[in-house]
Amino acid sequence: MGRTIAENRKARYNYFIHEEFEAGLILLGTEVKSLRAGRANIQDAYASFENDGLYLVNLHIPEYGHGNRFNHDPLRPRQLLMHKKEIKKIAGQIQKAGKTLVPLSMYFNDRGIVKVKVGLASGKKQHDKRATERERDWGREKQRLLKNFS
Fold first, then answer.
1. What is the pLDDT of residue 138?
2. Which of 14, 18, 82, 89 has its CA 20 to 30 A from that of 70?
3. d(Cα 116, Cα 118) in Å, to the nearest integer?
4. Residue 147 belongs to a domain
5. Closest Cα partner for 103 from 72, 128, 78?
6. Could you give the CA distance from residue 129 to residue 9 in angstroms, rounded to a whole number?
């Protein structure tokens, strides 16, 4: 994984991530330039199926400062590029098991191409979130105790 552009840190708190996939994105030139400046928000984004493919909805890429009239719409749906086999697998899981496809992180790979790591997820209930917090706090406390002990 190369340089990270944006990370959805709340995704692992709000969802159980069952499987992760890497996907490409169809972007415009001004969108890539804005991403190179490190400006993107994937917090509220999710993937949905439309008639001709899988789209990332609510991904916010702000307008490029020097884009003038050729600038893009910041919230337009962007098509995800994946293998057909993966798309069929994801479609089956979403329809059969009621799962969601959420973006986990967005980054430039080694070749400088924008990639999105998406996770097949199911939502957590409130008690699951509390358990996650407890585990995280216990891990921190354990590290503190080990540090003080040695």
1. 93
2. 82
3. 6
4. no
5. 78
6. 14
Residue 43 backbone phi and psi in degrees, to 5: -60, -45
Give the strand pairing for 53-57 and 46-50: antiparallel
In a domain, 141, yes or no: no
In a domain, 107, yes or no: yes
Domain with residue 11: its CATH number is 2.40.280.10
Total of domains in the chain: 1
State the residue range of the domain holding 39. Answer: 4-124
Report which DSSP code applies to 83. -
Identify the pLDDT of residue 148: 83
Cβ atoms within 10 A of the Cβ of 91, count? 13
* Residue type for position 100: T
Report the pLDDT value the prediction gives residue 1, as an integer from 0 to 100: 64
* pLDDT computed for residue 117 by the predictor: 92
Averaged pLDDT in 10-residue chunks for the chain of 150 residues? 82 86 88 83 86 86 77 83 89 84 90 90 85 90 86
